[in-house]
Amino acid sequence: MNNEFQAWFEKWKRDDHRVVTLVASAVVLLILLALTSFYTVQAESEGVVLRFGKYVKTVGPGLRFKFPFGIDRVAFVPVKRQLKQEFGFGSRGATNDTQYSEEQEQERNMVTGDLNAASVEWIIQFRIVEPQLYLFKVREPGVTLRDISESVMRTVVGDRTVDEVITIGRQEIEAEALSQLQAVVNKYELGLSIDQVQLKNVNPPKPVQNSFNEVNQAQQQREQMINIANGEYNKVVPRASGEAEQKIQAAEGYALKRVNEAEGDVARFNAVLAEYVKAPEVTKRRIYIETMQKVVPQLGRKIIIDETASQILPLLQLSTEGSQP
Q1: Which of these, 41, 49, 51, 122, lies nearest to 79 by C-alpha position?
Q2: Do residues 100 and 124 share a domain?
């Protein structure tokens, strides 16, 4: 009896061990299945699904399902993030491997259209708009974009003089480079959209940089003096024009006044003449009286005597007070 029980117990232990092993294997398999079947696409990215290495579809942000155990693989592409590349200089610590190059000196040294040398630093800002093209159409799209950008910038700079590149032509260069770069990117089907091309530091070569700065300072002083002169001109000329206009208006008003007064005198003279023709003596006497009315009050204290008088003493009121006998 004891032998039979011992044999049954040993058989039970062996069977139970197999069951535990099977259960543990099933649990591990389920965990691996769950871990390899679900994935999350971040809000700024899209997921490109590959099945046995072949493109299947592109999915948006969120929790997604895929075939497990490496049947499906997912590449995440940051389609909503604006990326950039720097040329002629570099900002350390970037997550984008192609943001800057170690060959910065070679990148920024260029020759302008008038065979002068210039040191040009610039950046491009771009976004990934077609993840499938970006991943599979061109090998190393970031490096390809750097090569295209450098080629386009050298072409644009080579069509302009050094003065245009360094001073007045920067915006035109940026616009032209953006247009040409986007055209080449579309031709190569990189799946990118170029948002901006921006020139940073644009200077002449270091051996002549001091002389060039002195020339620029002289030009700035010249422009400053011209602006000052224009300011004085704009301040003095309008004032002089206003004074001249004022004097002209005063002269015109005086002329109009004199003309009106003359016309009034003529009209008055003609009216008197008409009355004189009708009655000469009466008119003559009236004119004489009116004239005397105006003249006599202005003479002050006067004594008027007849022309036959021989002396005026009898007419004077001589005072005798205080006289000596």
Answers
A1: 41
A2: yes
Residues 72 and 119 in one domain: no
Please check the confidence at residue 15 and state whether its pLDDT lies above 80.
no
Calpha distance 282→279 (Å, rounded)? 6
Residue 153: is it exposed, middle or buried by C-beta count within 10 angstroms (0-12/13-18/19+)? Answer: buried
Residue 142 included in any domain = yes
* Residue 92 and residue 34 share a domain: no
- Could you tell me if residue 320 is inside a domain? no
In this structure, are 27 and 117 located in the same domain? no
Last residue of a domain, one of 160, 179, 204: 204
- The Cα 200–Cα 215 span in angstroms is 21
Beta bridge partners of 39: 64
Residue 249 lies in a domain: no
Domain co-membership, 73 together with 98: no
Burial category of 252 from C-beta neighbours within 10 Å (exposed 0-12, middle 13-18, buried 19 and up): exposed
- In this structure, the answer to whether residues 60 and 99 fall within a common structural domain is no
CB 199 within 8 A of CB 173: yes
- Taking the C-alpha atoms of 58, 64, 67 and 72 in order, what is their torsion angle to the nearest 10 degrees? 40
Q: Tell me the angle at which helices 141-158 and 170-188 cross, rounded to the nearest 10 degrees.
A: 140
Residue 35: which domain range?
22-77
d(CA 168, CA 161): 10
Structural domain total, the chain: 2
- In this prediction, residue 325 carries a pLDDT of 41
Please give the model's pTM, rounded to 2 decimal places.
Answer: 0.59
Give the pLDDT confidence score for residue 84 in this predicted structure. Answer: 93
Q: Please tell me which of 23-27, 168-172, 214-218, 306-310 the model is most confident about, judged by mean pLDDT.
A: 168-172
Q: How far is CA 49 from CA 42, 69, 130, in A?
A: 15, 14, 14
Q: How many CA atoms lie within 13 A of 130 on its CB side?
A: 16
Collapse the DSSP code of 149 into the 3-class scheme (helix H, G, I; strand E, B; otherwise coil) and give the result: helix
Domain assignment present for 53: yes
- Is there a contact between 166 and 203 (Cβ–Cβ < 8 Å)? yes
